[in-house]
């Protein structure tokens, strides 16, 4: 069960960066993860009319963070320890929708998988696996910091592109 609602996640995200609020929009939260949208602008583009790799990496990182925070609660000091991304297709310079699915939430580490699609298109344009470090006192999970790791199943439709 999510620890935060869509509105709470959006406020937390914007409040975490008061000098430069991110433009991501939290669209959905569920038991296994979240959906974020990157409203693209020419700032996110690169030559050829496509979304840049760094914009997709930042979206993947933020989506994973929001998926994790949606489970453990507002822990601003959880930080990225690893991010692996595969660029699968050239996205058009349109909004990008990212579905973040929690794979594991443990006492000190959480792992999420993020699939990104151009808005309105079914094909995954990039896929990332992101690991976050959780502060020792910041799990927010039932059972406290000493509870067992919680494996989490994939969200419907979040399978590997095939």
Characterize the structure shown.
The protein is of the alpha+beta class. It has one domain (6-151): Roll (Thiol Ester Dehydrase, Chain A). It has two helices and nine strands. It has helices at residues 6-16, 53-72; strands at residues 25-29, 33-38, 45-46, 50-51, 79-87, 96-105, 109-118, 124-133, 150-151. Strands 1, 2, 5, 6, 7, 8 and 9 form a seven-stranded antiparallel sheet that branches. A two-stranded antiparallel sheet has the order 3-4. A hairpin with a 3-residue loop joins strand 3 and strand 4. The longest helix is centred in the middle third of the chain and has 20 residues, at 53-72. The model is unreliable at 139-162 (pLDDT under 50).
CATH topology: Thiol Ester Dehydrase, Chain A
3D shape = globular
The CATH homologous superfamily is termed: Hotdog Thioesterase
The helicity comes to: 10-25%
CATH architecture annotation name: Roll
User: CATH first level: which class?
Assistant: Alpha Beta
Count of alpha and pi helical runs: 2
Total strand segments? 9
Distance between the termini: 30 Å
Unreliable residue stretches: 139-162
């Amino acid at each position: 069960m999510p620890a935060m609602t869509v509105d709470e996640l959006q406020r937390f995200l914007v409040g975490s960066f008061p000098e430069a609020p991110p433009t991501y929009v939290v669209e959905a939260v569920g038991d296994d993860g979240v959906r974020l949208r990157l409203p693209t602008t020419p700032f996110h583009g690169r030559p050829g009319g496509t979304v840049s790799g760094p914009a997709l990496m930042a979206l993947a990182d933020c989506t994973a963070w929001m998926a994790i925070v949606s489970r453990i609660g507002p822990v601003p000091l959880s930080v990225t320890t690893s991010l692996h991304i595969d660029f699968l297709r050239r996205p058009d310079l349109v909004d990008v929708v990212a579905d973040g699915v929690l794979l594991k939430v443990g006492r000190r580490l959480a792992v999420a998988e993020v699939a990104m699609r151009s808005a309105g298109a079914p094909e995954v344009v990039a896929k990332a696996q992101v690991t976050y470090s959780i502060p020792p006192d910041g799990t927010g999970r039932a059972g406290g910091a000493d509870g067992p790791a919680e494996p989490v199943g994939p969200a419907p439709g979040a399978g590997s592109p095939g």
